[in-house]
Amino acid sequence: MKYILNKKYWAPIAILSMMVFSMLFTSCDNNDSNGKAIAITKVFLEDVNSTVPDREVSFARLGQTLRIEGSGFAGLKKVYINGYSTYFNVVFVSDNSMLISVSADTPILGADPSVRNTIRFVNDSNETTFKFEIRSGKPAITSISNTMPNPGETIFVAGTGLTEVSKVVFPGNVEVTSGITSSEDGETFSVVVPNGISDLGGSIYVETSNGGVYSAKYFNFKKGLLLNFDGQGSHGYWGTSTSMIQPADLESATIGIGNTSQGKYVPHRPARIASFDAAKNRCSEVWTAGNGVDNWRAQLTPYIPATTPLDKVAFQFDMLVPDIWQQSGFLKICMINNFNGGEWAGACYNYVPWIVDGKAVAVQTTKWITVTIPLNKFYSWSKAAFTFETVLAFREAATYQNFGIYFENSDVKLSNVTGNASEVEFLSKATSVKVYTDNWRIVPLDTPVYNDFN
Fold first, then answer.
1. Strand, coil or helix: what is 222?
2. Which terminus of the chain has a smaller tally of CB atoms within 10 A, N or C?
3. What Rg, from alpha-carbon coordinates, does the chain have?
């Protein structure tokens, strides 16, 4: 019977065969350890999960396995990567080839400058140092302090592996290479926002000493604006109830330090209301115009297809909290106008920023920051996988298609916030907290994948 080997097994078998041959050659050469001169010719990355499992490279990351070609490896005693003595198995060493993995303990930024980005090979009589770049794990961006800032303002980008940032490219291919400040731990960097960024928005691209990385495609996505209180979208209001925020309640004085307000914005406690009583819902409400005006499908699907998974679509808004907000009050984000207040179910989401890890913390911002809430966090769509089409169809079938935000001031059960069983409850109290929002928008959350070998 004739068997045909599946292509998916070629790479692992090839690497295994190489290791076996290395063992055979090593058994001879290691018995003849004469300390010959060492020379390095090529370095390959070994990755059986890649379409190129044996790829010649000029850098490697912590934890990756390398195949090094050259001569004089027989009798090798020590290998130092960035000055760190790195274990290798002599079974996988021949005179012309060896395998070695870059230890997770290898120093990167902390390496002595004289040995950083080097591999040093040592035998009894000779040694050689080979210049080779060593990087940490792939960088990642987890958040941006403000995704719709004014030009000239500074933003802070958070994530991991964001070391020694040398370039930031904004939507519209606008490059910044100066004025970038990176933290030593690689968890944040700051950059001044340039002029000329595309209103179509998109990802920011960042170059670091660990390689490139993209943010989600939500930066400056002005095509997704639902309401900015300055002409984009329509502010809806009706009646004379105390809770309804009218055009006269909007404010426009410049507020915020570093990232400032942009024209008109909404105070969720209007100046005409001194404070909100404890145990009260629907203390204030602000809406889009709704039926006949809001058309999410026409506005958004050219940029966010209806088939997009709901965890890849988000509601974003910019927020300023100039005084401490703690222990009472939250924003209810309503997908349609069909809530009485107090709900922790349905097509809404309760934003309670002062509960962190089950405890009440103080929230205060001197600058406008961006809040991002994936649409799969809305209670109706949090228990299963849905697409953006689900939300579009839900809104189109609603009697009142206004999108809006309540300020609510009722008691908060921790179990409602976390979804986990808990007896903890935060009892409300009267509050005069100031919470401002602006630039309500729907944005994409998909993130381009950076390939080290593009």
1. helix
2. N
3. 29
Per-residue model confidence as pLDDT tens digits over 116-171? 999 999 999 999 999 999 999 899 999 999 999 999 999 999 999 999 999 999 99
Place of tokens 């984009």: 232
- CA distance between the termini of the chain: 42
Residue 27 has a CB neighbour count (10 Å cut-off) of 12
Q: Which residues contact 118 (CB under 8 A, 6 or more apart)?
A: 80, 81, 82, 83, 129, 130, 131, 132
270 contacts 321 by C-beta, under 8 angstroms: no
In sequence order, the 6+-apart residues with CB closer than 8 A to the CB of 432 are 269, 274, 275, 276
- Tokens representing 408 are 């609510």
Q: What is the pLDDT of residue 9?
A: 45
Task: List pLDDT tens digits, range 31-53.
Answer: 445 679 999 999 999 988 888 99
Counting Cβ atoms within 10 Å, is residue 272 exposed (0-12), middle (13-18) or buried (19+)? exposed
Residues 148, 220: contact at Cβ < 8 Å?
yes
Residue at token pair 């660990």: 210
58 within 8 A of 147, measured Cβ to Cβ: no
For residue 103, the one-letter residue type is S
Distances (CA, A) of 404 to 149, 226, 369, 416: 23, 10, 19, 21
Which residue is it, tokens 């949090």?
382
Please give the Cα distance from 318 to 367 (Å, whole number).
Answer: 10
The rounded distance, in Å, linking the Cα atoms of 444 and 308 is 9
The secondary structure of residue 307, as a DSSP letter, is: T
Closest CA to 100 of 62, 131, 126, 137: 62
